[in-house]
Design goal:
The structure is a single chain. With 502 residues, the protein is an alpha+beta fold. The protein has helices spanning 15-32, 60-76, 78-96, 117-134, 137-151, 174-191, 194-210, 235-252, 255-272, 283-300, 303-320, 347-361, and strands spanning 2-4, 43-45, 50-51, 171-173, 221-223, 228-230, 344-346, 369-377, 389-392, 400-401, 404-407, 411-418, 422-424, 430-431, 434-438, 444-450, 453-456, 492-498. The protein is globular.
Length: 502
């Protein structure tokens, strides 16, 4: 089954990832929403209590990530979520915004809570996206207010860049600066005011010359006393830097920005993904790279970006969601045992997962070509290497090209293009007792039919070139082993497959 859609204003969404994202959002509402409020607590526990944060509310950074979750939900279902987003924004402004100059969202709801430039840059981007989705001028006004506060953290010390917080002027911060670049570019696209593009160009030039490595990644900060870039290059800076370069490319048409985004992508995947295809680090940073790689796929149509991200999402769901639908801080670099019930969970971690699922669900545009390998199998489930001939390839709504495939020695690798938005099934045909199954690429097994009885197998990421034994067990030497519900055997006759746009 191949699902496709238009980016950002959805015709439909990849059902699995969409359902996962909506489920996490529902879990957030159930355990973390503050009673009588449109906002959320910092931490929830299995005994039903809420804790942490400031005066019963989460810090503004987690609230900003939840704001981006609502942006995604508005994109999917504007009727339902547009009023929810506005209510969240209104209360966020009422509780966190400091009315005295220079303004800005405080880190907490208390009047004395510190102001961080990076917090505000997160909020500014979320507000700009909300305006882009809804056209509501309130979001644009608040985005501009917030952006003006962020720029108040820029000065000429260290050559430029933006500080981390109002009270700390010891260094210039990667995230404050790069998120300000992103916000400035979004505001330029929405208003056409040249100053926003000028600001973004100036800030990114500083980042590129002061904190960026040759491989495209960014150090965490530029320390003023030593005049040096310091700190481990983090995944969130990579994602924001990647996204900013794509916005520069969209704005200017200069291919150098697209090439820079691709460099950051090529460096980031082996750096931040592990051998199993999972993303290692803290989810509240990871989601920025998820967003960036998704956007890069839309720009250059290289399937590897979407393949990497969707593979990581499937791994995350299978290996880090607890039985109650909650997630921890790390997406892979921890010792969590699947099936263990978490006793507490933080809003920032749940929101980062929900945003990643929902955003990735939106990235499988029609007209995209991707390669699949088709294999002919004999009645025992083994590769029929002697089969040569042409077989049909069908799709449930008819939106697939080509419609016929010629196999040589039992196999053929071809590009498939989806031309109709919606859910599609790439069908298989039985020819001369040869079973035709699409088994390579990045497909996921949904169900089989053994001896005429449909059986659920569950989602599995398929390694290249799987072969199956008659009892439905993937042969051990293929790198994956999975039993169907029928131990008695039989010929697998129907595979229902989903590529999730890959």
């Amino acid at each position: 089954m191949v699902e496709s859609l238009e980016p950002r204003r959805l015709l439909t969404a990849i059902p699995t990832l969409l359902a996962w994202g909506q489920n996490v959002y529902q879990k957030i509402n159930a355990s973390l929403q503050v009673s009588g409020s449109n906002l959320y607590a910092e931490t929830a526990s299995i005994n039903g209590t809420q804790s942490g944060g400031d005066s019963g509310f989460a810090y503004v950074w987690p609230e900003a990530i939840l704001f981006r979750v609502l942006d995604d939900l508005v994109n999917i279902d504007p009727t339902t979520y547009t009023p929810v987003l506005r209510a969240c924004s209104d209360e966020l402004y009422a509780r966190y915004w400091q009315s005295t100059a220079p303004g800005g969202y405080r880190s907490g709801v208390s009047a004395g809570a510190a102001l961080f430039y990076d917090d505000n840059s997160h909020v500014a981007g979320a507000l700009a996206e909300a305006y882009n989705l809804t056209g509501d001028p309130v979001y644009l006004s608040r985005a501009i207010q917030t952006y003006q506060f962020i720029l108040s953290g820029e000065d000429t010390a260290g050559g430029g860049g933006i500080y981390f917080s109002v009270p700390d002027h010891t260094s210039k911060d990667a995230i404050s600066t790069l998120q300000a670049v992103r916000a400035g570019l979004l505001l330029y696209q929405m208003t056409g005011q040249a100053q926003y593009l000028s600001d973004a160009t100036r800030l990114y030039t500083w980042a590129a010359t002061h904190i960026q490595q040759a491989n495209g990644l960014f150090y965490q900060r530029f320390v003023l006393t030593s005049g040096t870039a310091q700190g481990t290059p983090l995944i969130n800076a990579a994602g924001i830097g990647l996204s900013s370069n794509l916005l520069f490319y969209d704005t200017t048409g200069d291919g150098a920005y697209l090439r820079e985004a691709q460099l950051i992508g090529r460096t980031s995947v082996p750096r931040y993904f592990n051998a199993a295809g999972a993303i290692n680090d803290e989810g509240y940073w990871d989601f920025e790279l998820v967003d960036g790689l998704n956007a890069l796929y839309l720009h250059d149509q290289a399937p590897t970006w979407l393949n990497d991200v969707t593979g990581a999402m499937y791994w995350l769901h299978a290996n880090r969601e607890d039985p109650n639908g909650h997630y921890g801080t790390l997406w892979a670099r921890d010792t969590y045992t699947p099936g263990t019930v978490r006793t507490s969970w933080n809003m920032i971690n749940q929101a980062a997962v929900a945003e990643s699922y929902l955003r990735t669900a939106a990235f499988a545009p029609t007209g995209t070509s991707f390669n699949v390998t088709v294999l002919a199998e004999d009645s025992a489930g083994y590769l029929a290497g002697g089969f040569n001939g042409t077989v049909p390839l069908s799709s449930s709504p008819g939106g697939i090209s080509p419609t016929r495939i010629t196999l040589s020695n039992g196999a053929a690798t071809i590009p498939i293009t989806l031309t109709v938005a919606g859910t599609q099934q790439a069908g298989d045909e039985v020819l001369q007792k040869k079973e035709l199954h699409v088994l390579r690429g990045t497909w996921n097994v949904l169900k089989t039919e053994t001896d005429g009885k449909a059986e659920t197998v569950g989602d599995e990421n398929l390694p290249t070139g799987l072969t199956f034994s008659p009892d439905g067990r993937v042969l051990a030497e293929s790198g994956l082993e999975h039993d169907t519900e029928s131990p008695t055997g039989g010929v697998l006759r129907l595979w229902e497959l989903r590529s999730d746009g890959k």
